[in-house]
């Protein structure tokens, strides 16, 4: 057994026990003369708990104390990139490279930093350098392929990135899943399902492939095949929340809501804060008439619109929103939607808006603080899965902008990484909003595929510029597609209790 406390902290971090690791590293990192490793591991523990701003302070202390350490500059760049502070991250990582760093991981950090800074061409070059040094690294290949797709819309070029990684010995499962997502994003879900079905035959012991294949089969209307694949995943990994989540999904599609609810409840025993499992449990409960649904889907109490006040420094809300629109348009640099998100026919920013130094974007996060706190106060305390986590304080976990083109929409979805989620309207398709179909409105309660019985949307909120809508992260929501020649731009973020 190791006697070095930092070795013990590393074991804890590898086991996902960041809170315990933090207790070990704190006194070592806060010492008068901390070691390089103590500072780095304390930062890692903080980031594991989502406390990135606190981690940044220790990374800055590391480069001050060890200015010739390329690793310290690498760590600083990575944290800055995680926070969406792209230009600073680029500067830090380029300094680390000048100090002698030349590994694939450092080049990937530079690629992400350049993306956050808006230098998409430079990001692609950095990804190429990373893959030149580690051609079998699937994470870098997936990120690069995604960047190629979103920037150029070139399906063949994006696939080629994944294929080169596979030929170099990259792990097949994540590469096959990434390729299937490319097909689906390009409008060919049938090809995605065919690819993943073949992958499931080749890799019958890989639950991630079986889950992905089950979902693809379901989205192609092959419910029996989806159920067979999900059950195969359960045989491999019977106590996995992810497998139980997939079983709940396919059971609902197969008209077996009792089984769906039982699987979701079993998963929640192991992952009690899983927004996905709560979302599917609620869907099954709705089908069954179970009282759990009313507890989770109280639209009047849980879904509320708030119109923000004009931020300080602008004469009125219209002037502020005009500046915010300009700021967001500058960072919407991609031409295609991501492969892993809900939007279609539009673009999405890929790094945290909370890290932006643009005055209009900075003002946005100050403007929404009052409605967020009002919403938490309105929810109050309780024993249900939403209110039980209400501490009265919060942190923003992710923040991004979506710009939908005519015909664009969000597939119905929920946010598994959040507690509360949001939609803030910067630009709205005003002509579409007046249509009988409620085109462009945000809708709630409708799952993303046909269930037995069908479960249509139950609640709609009309967007308008300057309006923030807050709702539980587990709640189904999507955009009614609009056909008018207008654009719709939003900011969205997830909130976690602090």
UniProtKB/TrEMBL annotation:
The keyword Repeat applies. It holds the Pfam family TPR_16. Keywords: Repeat, TPR repeat. InterPro entries: CellSynth/LPSAsmb/PSIAsmb, CHP02466, TPR-like_helical_dom_sf, TPR_rpt. This is Uncharacterized protein. The keyword Repeat applies. TPR repeats lie at residues 104-137. PROSITE patterns: TPR. SMART domains: TPR (SM00028).
């Amino acid at each position: 057994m190791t006697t070095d406390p930092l070795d013990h902290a590393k074991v804890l971090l590898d086991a996902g026990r960041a809170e315990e690791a933090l207790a070990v590293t704190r006194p070592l990192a806060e010492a008068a003369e901390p070691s390089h490793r103590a500072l780095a591991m304390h930062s890692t523990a903080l980031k594991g708990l989502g406390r990135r701003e606190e981690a940044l302070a220790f990374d800055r202390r590391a480069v001050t104390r060890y200015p010739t350490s390329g690793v310290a500059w690498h760590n600083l760049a990575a944290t800055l990139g995680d926070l969406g502070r792209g230009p600073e991250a680029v500067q830090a990582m380029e300094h680390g490279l000048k100090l002698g760093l030349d590994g694939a991981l450092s080049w990937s950090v530079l690629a992400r930093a350049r993306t956050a800074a808006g230098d998409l061409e430079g990001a692609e070059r950095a990804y190429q350098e990373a893959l030149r040094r580690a051609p079998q690294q699937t994470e870098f290949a997936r990120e690069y392929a995604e960047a190629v797709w979103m920037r150029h819309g070139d399906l063949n070029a994006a696939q080629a990135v994944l294929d080169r990684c596979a030929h170099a010995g990259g792990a097949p499962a994540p590469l096959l899943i990434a390729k299937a997502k490319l097909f689906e994003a390009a409008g060919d879900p049938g090809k995605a399902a065919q690819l993943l079905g073949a992958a499931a035959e080749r890799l019958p012991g890989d639950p991630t492939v079986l889950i992905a294949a089950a979902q693809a089969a379901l989205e192609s209307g092959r419910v029996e095949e989806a159920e067979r694949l999900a059950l195969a995943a359960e045989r491999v990994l019977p106590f996995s929340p992810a497998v139980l989540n997939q079983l709940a999904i396919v059971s609902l599609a197969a008209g077996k809501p009792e089984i769906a609810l039982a699987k979701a409840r079993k998963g929640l025993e192991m992952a009690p804060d899983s927004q996905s499992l709560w979302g599917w449990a609620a869907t099954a409960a709705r089908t069954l008439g179970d009282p759990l649904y009313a507890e989770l889907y109280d639209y009047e109490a849980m879904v509320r619109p708030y119109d923000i006040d004009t931020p300080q420094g602008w004469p009125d809300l219209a002037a502020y929103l005009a500046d915010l629109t300009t700021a967001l348009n500058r960072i919407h640099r991609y031409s295609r939607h991501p492969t892993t998100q809900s939007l279609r026919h539009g673009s999405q920013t890929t790094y945290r808006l909370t890290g932006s130094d643009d005055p209009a974007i900075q003002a946005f996060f100050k403007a929404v603080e009052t409605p967020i706190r009002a919403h938490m106060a309105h929810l109050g305390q309780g024993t249900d899965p939403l209110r039980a986590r209400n501490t009265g304080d919060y942190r923003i976990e992710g923040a991004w902008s979506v710009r939908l083109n005519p015909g664009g929409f969000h597939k119905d979805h929920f946010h598994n990484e959040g507690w509360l989620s949001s939609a803030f309207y910067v630009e709205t398709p005003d002509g579409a909003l007046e249509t009988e179909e409620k085109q462009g409105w945000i809708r709630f309660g409708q799952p993303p595929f046909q269930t037995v019985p069908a479960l249509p949307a139950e609640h709609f909120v009309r967007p308008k510029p300057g309006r923030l809508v807050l709702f539980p992260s587990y709640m189904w929501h999507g955009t009614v597609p609009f056909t008018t020649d207008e654009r719709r731009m939003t900011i969205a973020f997830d909130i976690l209790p602090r």
